Every structure is written in structure tokens, then in C-alpha cells.
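Bench notes, afternoon.
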Amino acid sequence: MKGIMHTMKTCSVIMAVLFAFTMLFGMTSRVWAEEGAGEPYEDGRKGSITVTLKEEEGMNREGVQMNLYKVGNVDVSHGYLDFSLVDELEGIDADLNDITSSEANAAIAGILAEAVEERNLEMTGSLWTDADGQVTFEDLEQGMYLVLQGKANAYGTILPSVVPVPYADETSWEYDVEIEPKATPVTTLGRIDVTKMVKGINPDGNLQDVHTTDATYYIGLFMDAEGEHLYGETGNNVKPVHIIDGSSGTVSFDNIPITDQPYYIFETTEDGRPIKYLEQQGTENGFYCMAGEVIGAEGHDAPPVIIMENEADAIGTAVISNVYSDGLPEGYYYTGEITITKSIMDNDQMVASGDTFYAGIFAVDAQGNVSASPTEVVKLNNNGSVTVEVPLGGANGTEAVTYAVKETNENGVPVSQDSAFLYTVTGEGNVTLSTGENTGTIHITNSLGDSDGYYQEEPSTQAPASSGNNNSGNNGSSGTSGGTNRSSRSGKTGDNNQILLYAGLLVAAVIVGGVVVVRRRRR
């Protein structure tokens, strides 16, 4: 009889707190006791809290982190449940025995959420929801608990809440408490761009970009620094990045919730298994993964961290590199760069031109023989420069190579073989590149002159159409000397436009002459 009276008294005293708990989750979730419950209160009996996320359209409830903190102890020595804050939270303005409404529960939960972070309270547990959006914290001592969302993932924002163990309704005790909180979708979304670079340790021991003809890598977006929990739904959290005839490629993760929670970037296998940073992969032509582009830079040995709330324009960026440290696989090679500058001169003055010019890059063998066909033909930037990436020598670009740079037409035929080309060309030459010296520069100059094929217009007496900068569409500076414009009758490199023009004028002259003769005869 005394046990029954003790149970009844205990129930009546804590009903205010538990009723408020019911009100809170009656509005935003469901809390219930299993059928058959109704046994007397048991001091010291352990319980559990199960959190189940509701299935909502457009919200992924798998892989959401839920954290649990014990924030209150319970004392039954007075014949009722008396909750008090744990020692680590002493002094916090939160009365666990005065939760008389859902608003009070939410307010106290908010205060405690800040307090556990400020005071670095140890978590009772941290779990990630399964495919059904569910986690269960088991073997819990009696007391008051704070349920907090950790990583938001793609589900939404869940309000913090305080949950008592045990929970009582009007007739029974429930030590295994279940809640189904409501979440608010995250409507502010951003994007994360990840650039994958391919690099190698060249024979000189230096880090250098590596060109690949065709390679595919996989990038994963994770919610934790250990790479155990992928973000979002399967198929959207691991993406391939294809690199074709280049040394880098970029992949984007779209519609990423903008929160204060971090995201982590890993290279992965095709099935999403993360590759640890700085861990050698493979024995022959192996590589390791590195954050950023510089060996030894801060953070190069850990996954890049992106907090979308801190990113300008809601776009986060990261770079990760594969570094081949013991030779290159087939289809991978080192490259060099040739920068070609182009000037158009008239009497030592740089002038603008609407003509289009090209340069061919020809391989030169060990005997000095120049290839008949260019490795590449590049359009030049008048009174500016252009940089071309070219392979180094050997199968993987580990040997030195020499290239001849010549002005050509758009088909790669040197202008020295084109009698219609009326500029004087200087500056063509050879460039030798290696892994130790992988850049070179050639300066090509086209000069006008007074020889056949050139003409000089009379100084213009017409006022300029506008003042200020004259954008001719060419990079670099442009100008005239003494008010005289000088131009060439030649067309674009390799073009026959001027010849056709002269032929057309000749035909027109013949026709006009014929008309005059006919008219004179009629008279």
C-alpha cells in the first residue's frame, strides 16, 4: 500500500513538468508509452530515447546527426522527482522543475543548447539517423536530457528539446521514450565547387602539374572529418570529375543548405569510400591525395572544411590534388609552357591591326630537324601575348624537348612560304623545355615598310569620332604617328581576300568601260 501511495504522490508532483513535455511534443511531435506499461515507478531503472524524423517531401532524413546531453539529475529522496542541473551547468538560469508550457520547454532547451556548447559539456551520445530517419539512445540513467541536432544534412532544422526519463502519462510510467520532432526545411541553398588537380614529383624533385589524356576521379561531400557520413542522398554526394587533355577539372555540388555546420571534402572510390589524405595509393605509379596545391601548406594533410554560412555569394570552393610520387602512369605526362608575344610595328611605333595572325609550334629532333607539321597552331593576340601548354620529351615528359616557333597561316604553313604575306617577320626561334626549366618565351614582331605591297594614306583631316580610349579589340596599346595611319594591303595571315577584291575591281572597271563605249557608239 505504501508503494502505491508513493507512486501516486510521485506522479502528482511531477505532472506539471511532464504535462508541459506532452504539450510541447503534442504540438510538434508525438510522445507515447507502449501498451502494457503501467508498472509502478522503479528507482534506478534505466531507459532510452528514440528519435524518429518524419518523412517529408524533398527532405532526406537519412544521415542526420542527433546529439544527446544529460543536463539534469533526478532526486526521489523527498518522495517525488526533483530535477536539478548537472554540476557542469551550475548557475545556468534554467529551472527544470518549472516547465509548465511548450513555450517554457523551448525556451529552456534554447538556453541549455548554448550552455552545453559554452561549457563544453560532454555528450551522452551522438548518433546518425538510418534510412528510416531513426536513432535510439539506450541505457540512459534517469534524469533530464537535451536532444540537439548536429549536422543538418539535407533534412532541415530541428529545434532543441528537453526530454525526461522516465516519462509519465496519467496512468503509467514509460522509461523508453519516443519522440518524432518536426523540422523546418532549409530554404537558403548554395553551391560547393571542388577542383581536382593532377600533379607529380618530377625528376628534379619538384612538384609540377601533370597532363592526362583521359582520367576520371571521384569526389565525395561528407558531414564529418573522418569521412564516415556522406551528405545527402546516394547519387548526389559522390560525383565523378573527368579530366581530358588537361591537368585539372571541377565538379559542383548544388542545393547545399547554408548553415553554420561544416562540410568536408574527400576524394573517394567510385562507390564512395573515402581516400585518406597523404596515404599512398598503389605500389606502381602510386599517388597520394593532398588538400590544396602546395606540399607542406597548412591543412594539406586533412580534408578541406567548408562552412557555407561564411562563404561569399553562397559558393564554397576547395582544391584537392593527386600527387604522383613514383613515376607516372600511361597517358600521364609533364608539360611546359611557351608564351608567344606579338607586336605589330610601323617605324618603331606599335600600331593596331585588324589582321589575324597565327603561330605554329614545331617539334625539333636531336639532329635539329624541324617537323614538317606543327604540334599545335595557336591564334596570336595582337600586341599582346598567348601561352601554350606543350608536352615535354619522352613517354611521360621527363626528358628535355625543343620546339621551333614560327609564324604560320591558320593551317600551320609557315608564312615564309607564302609570297602574299607582306609583313616583315622577326623573332621566330627555338625554345628548349625540361622539367627543370618548363617555361619559355618567344617574341614575334611584324613590321610594316615602304617596299612594294605597302601604301601610306594621306593624313586624315576628319575629326576623330570619339575621344578617350579606342578599344580596337586587341590587347596591348595602339596608336598612330604624326596623324598618319599606315596599313598593309595584305589580308589576314593565309587569306586571299585582297586578291579577290582586286579581281572584283578589275571586272567592274571592264564593265564600266564597256558601258561607256556603248554609249559613245550610240551617240
